[in-house]
Amino acid sequence: MKELSEKLLLVVDAAEVRLRQISAAECSKPILHGGWSRKQVMGHLIDSASNNHQRLVRAALQTSLDFPRYDTDGNVRVEAPEEADWTLLISLWAACNRYLAHMIRRLPASKLETICRIGDGEPRTLSFVAADYVEHLLHHLRQIGVADAA
User: Per the confidence metrics, is the pTM higher than 0.90?
Assistant: First the structure.
């Protein structure tokens, strides 16, 4: 988990610099299929960090985890990130992910095989959930043009 934690920190550090270079006007323009803007993607990534924070902690404390899926479109609709300040979104996202990296690094080795069930998805291990979170983050950062395509 140390390597995954370090990877997450590197991604956040690099993306944060690039995110802060995007103007307020640019971050509000639709860029994805369905009309999502960079602000809305950032709102989704904050939700993802929040949900995964709870998944990681709860799975580390229990013998297994059953956790609901979250309503991506509903969360973006209710939270209205398109109305939030761009720098607030970036700062919150970066801080949440730095804390997640701190947590991931400290996940007990004895808990990495804890089975996690999220919604109706296939059961996965805690280590898979952590690694999948970072890949999900990278996917969306690539979509909005602040992470390398690799």
Answer: yes
Q: What whole-number distance in Å separates Cα of residue 16 and Cα of residue 84? A: 17
Return the structure tokens found at 39.
């602000």
Residue for token digits 């059961």? Answer: 123
Strands 115-118 and 64-67: parallel
Q: What 8-state DSSP symbol labels residue 63?
A: S
**Domain count of the chain?**
1
**Looking at residue 21, which CATH number applies to its domain?**
1.20.120.450
Range 135-143 contact pairs with CB under 8 angstroms and sequence separation of 24 or more: 136/48, 137/8, 137/11, 137/45, 137/48, 137/97, 138/11, 140/41, 140/44, 140/45, 141/11, 141/15, 141/45, 143/31, 143/32, 143/41
Q: What is the mean pLDDT of residues 37-63?
A: 95
**Domain assignment present for 148:** no
Range of the domain at 84: 2-143
pLDDT of residue 147: 85
Is residue 150 domain-resident? no
Nearest Cα to Cα of residue 27 among 13, 43, 14:
43
